[in-house]
Every structure is written in C-alpha cells, then in structure tokens.
Amino acid sequence: EKGEQDRFEEQADLAVEKRVWLGWAEGVFGLLVNMTIALGTALVLYVGMRNVLNGQLTLGELLVVLAYITQLYEPLRTISRQTASLQSSLVSAERAFEVLDEIPDVLDGPNPRRLETAKGEVEFRNVSFSYGRGSDVLDDVSFKVRPGTRLGVSGRTGAGKTTIASLLPRFYDTDEGSVLIDGVDIRDYALADLRDQFAIVLQEPVLFSTTISENIAYGRPEALAKDIEDAARSANVYEFIAGLPDGFETLVGERGMKLSGGERQRIALARAFLKDAPILILDEPTSSVDVETEAGIMETMERLMVGRTTFMIAHRLSTLEYCNARLEIEGGVVTSASGDVDVPALLAS
Fold this sequence. Notes:
The protein has 2 domains: 2-100; 122-348, Rossmann fold (3-Layer(aba) Sandwich). The strands form 2 sheets. A 6-stranded mixed β-sheet has the order 6-7-8-3-9-10, sandwiched between helices. It has a 5-stranded antiparallel β-sheet with strand order 5-4-1-2-11. The chain is an alpha/beta fold. The radius of gyration is 32 Å and the shape is elongated. The protein contains 10 helices and 11 strands. Helix 6 (225-234) packs across helix 8.
C-alpha cells in the first residue's frame, strides 16, 4: 500500500509540475502576443499621425484603419488563450489516429466465401499456434466434431483450452495447420460471416455501460422487445429484470458493476439465446459463481446447448457433465478423448 501511495504521489507531482509549466508557457505566449499587438498598434498610430499631419491622410481614415487593425488582432488574442487546449486536442487526435491506422492481425482473404448458417461440423487439422516467439501453446492438434456435438475441453491452466476457443472465430490465425467449419478452411470465409456463427459466453461476461435491453440485444441490434424478453425468459433472468424499477431499461454500470456475478452471467446467456448462433463457446462460464448459482446456470446452459455444436471449457469436471464428448489437453497436446469426437493421433496409437 505504501509503495502504491508513493507511486501515485510521484505521478501526481509530475502532473502538477507539467501543468504549472504549461500555465507558465501559456502566460508567456499570451504576453508576447499582447506585446506584439501593442507595438503594432503604436507603430500604425505613429505612422498614421505623421501622414495626418502631412495631409496625406485624414483623421477619419486613420480611425478606420485602427478599427480594422483591432478586429484583425482579436483572433490572435483568441489563439493565445486557446493554445493549451489546442495542443491537448492535437495529442488526443494523434492517439485516436494511431488506433484507427492500426492494421488488424486478421483480415479477409481475396474473394472470401459467404456463410449464411453453418451446419456446425468443426475440425482442427494439424494445428500449431504460439503467442509471439514463445513455445507452442498448441502443438499439432487434430480432432473433429460433428454438428450438434457438446464437446467438453479440460486441462490445467495454460494447457491451451482457451486458445482453441480463440482460434475458432479467427481472433488469431494458426501458425501451422488449419481450422475447418463444414469442411472449409475458416480463412476462406468472410470474417464477418464467420464470427456471426458464434455465440460466446466468457468467464467474465462483457457488459457495456448501457441498459440491460441493449446488452442482451448486442448480438442482434435489430431484435424486437418481445424477442429480448423471450431470451431473458430462456435464461431464467426475466423475473429478476422485471422486478427492477426500470425493468429492461435499467443501466448496468461500467462492465455490469451494478449486477452480481450470477446476474451478469445470465444476461450473457440471454444474449446467446437471442443470437441463436449454430456454434456455442462457453469458456469457464461458472468458475466465478458459487455452487448454488452454478446449478441454475448449468440448467440454463443445457437448454442453450440443444441443437448447437458446443465447446465448453472448464476446470471443474462436474461442469462438463452435460457434454457428450470430452477432450483433455496438456501442454498443447491432446492426451485423451472420449465420446463423439474423432482424434486421429489417439486412434493411431
């Protein structure tokens, strides 16, 4: 705590120092501008009076010239007062353009294939992947699941479970091998169409600082109010929402901080129900809730998995009871499999 306080005070002192320097620089600049205006006005007045005395200029004409000069100098005074805020705005704009100019890691290939609704067959074919230059997180992983399979993926922390989930919607591209959906390499599909095939529920649900209704409809912005309510009923969260003073128009706060962990998770499940995607990814969906809440969420997820190809990632083996296929990963390699999943490496051995 003492270390954090010292670090905060150091940064605060630095910010105050920079602010004082900025104020001083702004004041000096303003002084220089005012001195320039004063000297310019004095010079014009001196030359003008000489011309008036010599009869080359009337007094009225001199006053008109001074009035025009006064109007000309006013924008200079405004610029001197706005210099600091202008610099701040330029820095903010530079940072914004840096983000806008960033080239995505994953792009559409030439002439991408359209994909309306996937059947749900998923295959990893000799997939190897690493983050940066480190060792492989996945090493020559191959398996295939048929449409509607509920695949449970287990393993220790860092084994590569979440990486499998990240490769499916092309958050990353494989280093070697390929991921196929319905027999087609996912790199051949249009990226927007591909990602539209997935509904994802994470360990920490991503909720935005807006209403419950907008959060549920995030995957389908055009959804009607009735559809949103039906999705909430399917996720067993309708009664809770209806009991709030503002109902579906209740603001959830930054990252859903006004809701409990179980309530956030149910809203994320309602979002998945509403999107109705053919492939479902559940990444540690109950690891941050208590046992009682987990039981209710698992009942909801069982209904959500019906008719969908599902990838459920979990540490607790009890969470995978609803899966009809299992895959265990250790050190980026498939070590065991059971149920309705084909693993060539294990079949060969």
